[in-house]
Specification:
The complex is a heterodimer of chains A (160) and B (307). With 160 residues, chain A is of the alpha/beta class. Chain A has one domain: Rossmann fold (3-Layer(aba) Sandwich). Chain A is built from six helices and five strands; from the N terminus they run αβαββαβαβαα. In chain A, strands 2-1-3-4-5 form a five-stranded parallel beta sheet. The relative contact order of chain B is 0.16. The chains are: A alpha/beta (160), B mainly alpha (307). Bound molecules: iron/sulfur cluster.
């Protein structure tokens, strides 16, 4: 049953202010040549129905709370895949006045896909890795259930 | 008693088989777009199983209606399928299997769908909900008039009687009114099944999926299965009334035949689906719905002049 589920991961893609290079590569991964629907993946664009959150971009200050909110909206178990060097540590946007220098410390990340921009093969590899982690998370049930109001307030979701 | 048993039997079998045809349609669509598509024909089963196992979410502003709507949708879809005399046409007549029952159940399903989407408080869902009702406004007159012609020709609204009359050759395509009504009904059926020129089943947020935007996990799985049931019910209505090859009355054989025929319609719609762009809602409907309405009125006029 678990293996059955691992063949149908759905993806939400969220761009937190990158240069769009990564997003174009993701579109290519959906297209005829690299088609990730081979693995049962669909790009849903709706965090409530997705299992994998694919983040690109250096996380601008504006996007930070939205990113947390998107992450909280996804039902457990879920996996976060950070893609591109600017998501990892800022990349070409590092130390700019309006960015967070990467996703680290904002939402927990499971898979890092390096590159600027990563090759499509790397994206597919990272997503498969994410599915593997997702499978283990499902099996071991290692995730929080429910969020306290205090936690939500602390990470800036409740008081906006 | 036998009829009741056969009703439940056909609903269960069709509900179990529907995702398979959806899987075939998905693979075919991917191939037509030069993609590889899902690994095999069972992808929709996997999706639904996965959705059943996932957590559910509900917006804080939603009422109880939002929570129970998917189950209600599913029950309505199943009731529509049960009203179709697929397996029990050869047995005694039951009043439940009636065109009016089906039409009202379809309207109920549409209503619940719209209200649940508006109740979710999601602006996209609300837009999608009103869009769905708008489509209903265009389609329902065509549907009703074509069915009316059939009912007038047959002199009854009971589907079992109509099917038996078809079987005995009392009504059929030798009547011009019947033949013309089948054309307009085919159009209405296609629109109701939510395919491309009018709708894009797995597309942007404001279309059919958008209505379910706030659902997740098992709720979403149930709602998707319900939509599939509804599409099969609409196809089944066409097959029951307008399809000339009524080969057998044996329950199980006719169920298998029904599945093959409905599957052909469901999968064949992919070809229309894939070639050509989606219409703008009003622009597309104003021309198309007028034509279809014209065709159905022609059928009515043909009946009245006695052709
Ligand atoms: S990693 Fe490079 S290509 Fe990707 S969004 Fe950032 S700057 Fe653009």
């Amino acid at each position: 049953m678990n293996d059955l589920r691992a063949k149908s991961p759905w993806i939400t893609h969220y761009n937190t202010g990158g240069c769009n290079g990564c997003d174009i590569e993701i579109l290519a991964a959906l297209g005829p040549k690299f088609d990730i629907e081979r693995f049962g993946m669909l790009n849903r664009g709706n965090p409530k129905q997705s299992d994998i959150l694919l983040v690109t971009g250096p996380v601008t200050l504006r996007c930070r709370d939205v990113l947390r909110r998107v992450w909280l909206e996804m039902p457990e178990p879920k996996v976060v895949v950070a893609m591109g060097s600017c998501t990892h540590g800022g990349g070409v946007f590092r130390h700019l006045y309006h960015t967070e220098n990467g996703i680290d410390g904002i939402v927990p990340v499971d898979v890092w896909i390096p590159g600027c921009t990563p090759r499509i093969e790397a994206i597919i590899d990272g997503l498969i890795e994410g599915v593997e982690i997702w499978k283990n998370k499902t099996k071991e049930k290692e995730y929080m259930v429910g969020h306290s109001e205090k936690l939500l307030e602390k990470i800036g979701v409740l008081n906006d | 008693m036998t009829v009741l048993f056969l009703m439940i039997f056909q609903v269960v079998i069709i509900a179990l088989a529907a995702p398979f045809f959806d899987g075939i349609a998905r693979v075919l669509r991917a191939r037509l777009q030069a993609r590889k598509g899902p690994p095999d024909f069972f992808q929709t089963y996997r999706d639904i199983i996965k959705l059943y196992k996932r957590g559910r979410t509900a917006p804080k502003c939603a009422h109880w209606f939002f929570t129970y709507a998917p189950y209600f949708l599913y029950a309505t879809g199943a009731a529509m399928l049960a009203a179709m005399p697929i397996t029990y046409a050869g047995y005694e007549s039951v009043g439940y299997s009636d065109i009016f029952v089906l039409v009202y159940l379809a309207a109920l399903l549409k209503f619940v769908f719209g209200v649940a989407s508006i109740d979710s408080g999601n602006p996209f869902a609300a837009v999608g909900g009103s869009r769905e009702q708008m489509i209903g406004v265009f389609v329902e007159p065509v549907l009703i008039i074509s069915l009316l012609v059939v009912m007038l020709l047959a002199g009854t609204s009971n589907l079992i009687d109509i099917k038996n009359m078809m079987y005995a050759g009392e009504i059929g395509y030798f009547m011009p009114a019947f033949a013309v009504a089948s054309i307009s009904f085919l159009w209405a059926m296609y629109v109701e099944s939510g395919r491309n020129p009018y709708d894009l089943a797995e597309a942007e947020q404001e279309l059919q999926e958008g209505l379910l935007g706030e659902y997740s996990g098992s709720d979403f799985g149930v709602a998707q299965a319900a939509l599939m049931l509804k599409q099969f019910a609409m196809i089944g209505l066409f097959i029951t009334i307008f399809e000339p090859f009524n080969l057998t009355m044996h329950p199980i054989l006719s169920l298998i035949l029904f599945l093959i025929k409905a599957g052909l319609f469901y999968v064949g719609a992919v070809f229309i689906d894939n070639f050509g762009a989606r219409y703008k809602l009003l622009g597309g409907f104003k021309t198309n719905a007028t034509f279809a309405l014209g065709v159905s009125v022609v059928a009515l006029v043909l009946y009245i002049v006695g052709a």
